[in-house]
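Researcher: Re-running this chain for the archive, since the previous output was lost when a drive failed. Same request as before.
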Amino acid sequence: MAPADEFDELMGTLDYPMVVATVTAGGRSDGCLVGFTTQCSIDPPLLAVCLSDKNRTTRTARAADALGLHLLAPEHRPLAELFGGRTGDDVDKFAEVRWAPGPLGVPLLTGIDRWVVGRITDRIRWGDHVAHLLEVVEVSKGRPRPILSFQAVKDIPAGHEA
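Model: Regenerated structure tokens:
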């Protein structure tokens, strides 16, 4: 087995939180399911959010000033299926959900009470993803409950070609 295949198998055993990233630029709102997010600084509070270079959300984010991140709970699997299994190239995902404009104009999904909005301060190409460094602007911590994790959604086929 090639090292890349072994690496894929190993990473496939991990379980980490899934979030929906949302963005608005040029009069268009987009969003996608994201598995690669991490806090990368305590002071100042910063997040790194990696968006696939193949999806429309990344193209919209190139012109955006901010991103929203929604931490999903298990009951939000239908949102994970919409934002992870459909592409904005074919469907307006925001026509299928309830949302409202949030801080910095970022679309916030109604019913998700755990979210972060951050100002994009840098973009870095990392392999087949673009890392967006976010300076935290506003947070809604919501109520504590389980997270929707990678293992619970890895069966969702990607909305765009791999």
